[in-house]
Design goal:
The chain is mainly alpha-helical and about 90 residues long. The chain contains three helices and no strands. About 55% of the residues lie in helices and about 0% in strands.
Length: about 90
């Protein structure tokens, strides 16, 4: 669990914060590895610019040639994310 130590400016508090940051980095690394295992070949196509192009295309397909992008309705099916935080606990 990640908490603010009672005195984050003390030596002990600083050490606790550093340890928590190490734990966070380990969790991120685990998630990145999992993401790479599941989607490795597709990752180059998952950047921001590609996502916007895909969203624009979906908007045109679902709403017609002059449709405006409605991010809420287009992204609702994908809101589950790639991995669940509870899987790390």
């Amino acid at each position: 669990m990640f908490d603010l130590p009672p005195d984050p400016f003390s030596v002990e508090g600083r050490e606790e914060l550093i340890e928590q940051q190490r734990e966070v980095i380990t969790l991120w690394e685990t998630e990145y590895k999992l993401c790479n295992e599941v989607l490795g070949r597709e990752l180059p196509f998952m950047g921001t610019s590609q996502a916007v192009k895909d969203i624009e295309r979906m908007s045109k397909v679902f709403g017609g040639k002059d449709a405006l992008i409605n991010f809420v309705s287009l992204l609702r099916p994908f809101s589950g994310g790639l991995s669940k935080p509870e899987s790390f606990s």
